[in-house]
Amino acid sequence: MATVIDIPSEKAIEVNNFSFTYAGATSPNLKNISMPIAKNSVTALIGPSGCGKTTLLRSFNRMHDLYPGNAYDGKIMFEGRNIVESKEDLINLRIKIGMIFQKPTAFPMSIFDNIAYGMRLQGLKNKTELADRVEKALRDAAIWDEVKDRLKHDANGLSGGQQQRLCIARAIAVEPDVLLFDEPTSALDPISTQGIEKLVMELRDRVTIIIVTHNMQQAARVSDYTGFMYLGELIELNKTDEMFVTPAEKLTQEYISGKFG
Ligand SMILES: Nc1ncnc2c1ncn2[C@@H]1O[C@H](COP(=O)(O)OP(=O)(O)OP(=O)(O)O)[C@@H](O)[C@H]1O
Prior knowledge:
By secondary structure, the protein is of the alpha/beta class.
């Protein structure tokens, strides 16, 4: 049995009896997951290695479709439709539901072009508007002051922490509704980590955020809701404050108190 609390506010996504099986797996890697994702909030996914956090995160924008033979079952409802049904326009979906990866992935081009990339894909050609929106995205991602004098420089010349903020700027430039963060600070130093955490908390006012993290303290610091997963199942979805003080499930309690990891 799982404990999944009801969310009093608007929901951005609703996962309903969702299962997922990787190509060649003999049993589902995610099993019957049902959970709401609160709009304009941060939901953290925690749990031991291999429990399915990344697999669930990648289902939200169908990253698994990049490889053949993976199977979705059940529903992930977003904007009134089940996005794991095959008719979905995946480019459009990934603009609306963007992703920030564990390792910063600056494209091999200038800082400006990295941010303009998605907007150009969307058909934006007006140079003034493009420049304004590049600046806004870089400001929103708290990196403008560091890069404003070298927008034409190769983005790969930036530090890891700067590249991660660049990736966040690139993702928010196309004005997504949801941002998926897959362990966004695990390759970063403590100061850069602090910067990204601050950014996540600021962005929640306009974007729904789902973040996978190994770090329970990070989940406690940045999220409003936390989902604890174990062996491909969602064991508990609760308000973060309650999850880390009075978890509803014994398994959650054992995990957060360090009985297993
Ligand atoms: N590409 C893949 N092909 C087949 N099985 C996979 C693949 N990726 C993950 N798995 C399996 O799916 C299950 C869930 O893995 P997943 O990476 O989602 O867990 P996780 O909780 O994110 O782990 P970690 O914290 O170590 O990143 C594991 O049993 C894993 O071995």
